[in-house]
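Good morning C.,

I know you're traveling, so I'll keep this short. The sequence:
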Amino acid sequence: MDHEAQRAALADVVAIPVTPFTEDGTVDERAHRALLRRLVDSGIRSLTPNGNTGEFYALTPAERRAVTELTVEVAADRAAVLAGVGHDVPTAVAAARHAREVGAGMVMVHQPAHPYVSESGWVDYHRAIAQEVPELGVVPYVRDPRLSGARLAELGDSCPNVIGVKYAVPDAVRFAAFARDAGLERFVWVAGLAEPYAPPYFAMGATGFTSGLVNVAPALSLTLLEALRCGDYRAAMKGWEHIRRFEELRAAHGAANNVTVVKEALASLGLCRRDVRPPSKMLPEAERAEVAAIAAGWSV
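The tokens, ready to paste straight into the viewer:
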């Protein structure tokens, strides 16, 4: 299969949309559709339904399917869809097949949450999924610093449809070595820790980055991408400074409020409710005010 279109879509701002909820706790399809349209209308060309910012682990299987279907519908021919899949192999394969059936072009495989993950087992897990959907581009989500680039190269050798990597280990030097050991040109490298890590990871070989902030202020993410593509790191770091406090709030307490802060900003702008599902929790009143002030100061 020719996956060049999917590779190009990964070398971009890869948005991780939130999943808004209604007052009774169900998925708010109307708000979700509006938020997705807002992203696409703003120039975002890659969408990841069922990512961590979309509360993947808090959604039911039926909700995850519905989120994928709605994202594909809204994206149409204007944006690529990279559907998040995971859990046990049969569940991940079923989700990948569903994504293929409804029109998604790629799947992102969440880092296995099992506490006992061997390197060879990691390869086997991803191979089992990728081989079932050869038509789709497959993107492993790497969060384990123990994984070696050689193992990713092994996976790529057996599965040509593994086309990119969402790398989310917070160590730019480790990333540089991992990417080169795996194959810098063989895979598209996506900085999986979003805007705060995008400048150093681009300097080391990344060509795209994920974003949750993009739900709130797409223009900020796109402007940062353009600066990085041009190699203008002075401009990129000015953008970095502009979003720094927002991202610090998301990263606080071991990133406990990663999703919560994004939804709080959206709620302050009247775009969706602030509700999150356990194990996330809504912000206390004082932090709500700070998030609202930050969002109000952006041109969104």
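Safe travels,
E.
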